[in-house]
Design a protein that fits this description.
Number of strands: 5
Radius of gyration: 14 Å
Distance between the termini: 25 Å
Strand content: 15-25%
Oligomer: single chain
Largest sheet: 5 strands, mixed
Number of helices: 6
Helix content: 25-40%
Order of helices and strands: EEHHHHEEHEH
Length: 136
């Protein structure tokens, strides 16, 4: 499976799904797609109105799939929960990313994308919460 990170707006059809990693306290504090990834909010504006956001609590390893409108640049977003930021470890991210990749494979997708700014925002959030951060 092809996994890409992008810092640019994707071409239509370039990625089958985008994965958005989120901590549970971000959801409790009313996280919006724009706050989690301004890049993804621009590439998949339909996510802000998705009913899936109401169901997603960002518990550790929780996955919620949301579909966009036909013809969207990014037709699907997989919300991936990382749990509590204070209990985070790089191993937790690896495990969650692995579950996300397996889910994408089950759907028969060619690849998945992760917005580069999602990791920057996660890293900043981890530092503020006092949790273990990503390796450099």
């Amino acid at each position: 499976m092809k996994i890409i990170t992008q810092a640019r707006f994707p071409e239509k059809g370039e990625t089958d799904i985008a994965v958005l990693f989120v901590f549970n306290d971000q959801m409790r504090n009313g996280m919006t797609p724009e706050a989690a990834s301004p890049f993804l909010a621009k590439a998949a504006p339909w996510l802000a109105d998705s009913p899936a956001l109401n169901d997603f609590k960002a518990k550790k390893d929780e996955l919620v799939l949301s579909y966009g409108q036909p013809g969207s640049h990014i037709p699907r977003v997989l919300l991936a929960g990382l749990g509590d930021a204070k209990k985070f470890s790089p191993d937790a991210l690896r495990a969650c990313a692995g579950k996300a990749a397996r889910r994408c494979r089950e759907l028969g997708l060619r690849g998945m994308g992760v917005a580069g700014d999602n990791f920057t925002i996660l890293k900043d959030h981890l530092q503020a919460a006092g949790g273990e951060t990503f390796p450099e």
